[in-house]
Amino acid sequence: MPSLYSLLLRAGFILMPTFLIMTAAVAAEQTAPASTLATVVAQQAPVARETAFDAAVEAIDQSTVAAQTSGRVMELFFDVGDYVEKGAVILRLTAVEQRARTEAAEAALAEARARLAEIELTYSRIKEVYDKKLIAKADYDKAAADLSAARARVEAAQAARTQAQEDQGYTLVRAPYPGIVVARLVQVGETVSPGKPLMTGVSLERLRAVVEIPQQHVGPLRKHRKARVILPDGRSLEAAAIRFPPTADPVTHTFSVRVDLPPGEHGVFPGMLVKVAFVSGEEERLLIPGTALLRRGELTGAYVIDDKGYIALRYLRVGTPTADGRVPVLAGLDAGEHIATDPVAAAIASKRSQQREDAE
Q1: Domain housing 152
Q2: pLDDT tens digits, 199-222
Q3: Does residue 4 form part of some domain?
Q4: What is the full DSSP assignment across 281-344?
């Protein structure tokens, strides 16, 4: 038979959580009244009227690196999908012929310089004798011509050596900009010649959105020349540059407009779809902060607080958020009404208020 102590212990074990829950509920109601909620007044304000179009992202820097000298592919340091830093060696060719030409050019330059030194010495002697009027001017002119020719041969030899060194440097193929390899067009052991495509890469640091705009919309958009790119996650980026083509496509009668994204990586990649919102004018809209909205599935609402402090959830029809994060309300709200800026806190306060009314 259980003792009196164990019976009391069991009773306390059951009653203690209930007591704590009731105490916490009362304390919460006392510390979170509706009057303490942060609110904002819905007001009419001028905003840019925007027209949005679907657009495709593409890389501004996208190119195929080709061979600038002949040789056999010895090593491939990167493959498709690899990230490459600017100036990194992506491929190495054989350099036997190029190295031999460089050595021959350096030997020819050394010979030309030695010949120039000899001719300069001869010229100095002839000039000294000519200044004393001991030889004819024709002999002096010949020495001066020989000196000019020797100097020209040295310059030609220097140019040949520079060209040979450049050809030798072309055996190490380097990335022209940082980016990602999207295609490898050669294999190890393959012989290539100048102009042979080797690798294709794109840079993710400089992107643009290409949008096809019907001809009836181009006029106002070209006038304002301002737009923002709306990313798939809802963020928006101000366009760094907008380029309107001078002519339309003769078949579709649309203008292919290029909108440059700001430099840097923004979580979008070539081929993705985004929206571009072009400014086409200005209009008055009822605006509230985007953080005040509560989304439940496909429905959007906000907690409205009236003059008596009552909190009510009201569903709204809203438009596209502005660049500064405010949201235009198209229906469901009037100017001057107070909106709770924290929908979670407002929901808790509303529920507690309802519980108090039910208890009374």
Answers
A1: 95-169
A2: 999 988 889 999 999 998 888 888
A3: no
A4: EEEEEEEEEGGG-EEETTEEEEEEE-TT--EEEEEEEE----TTSEEEEEES--TT-EEES-HH
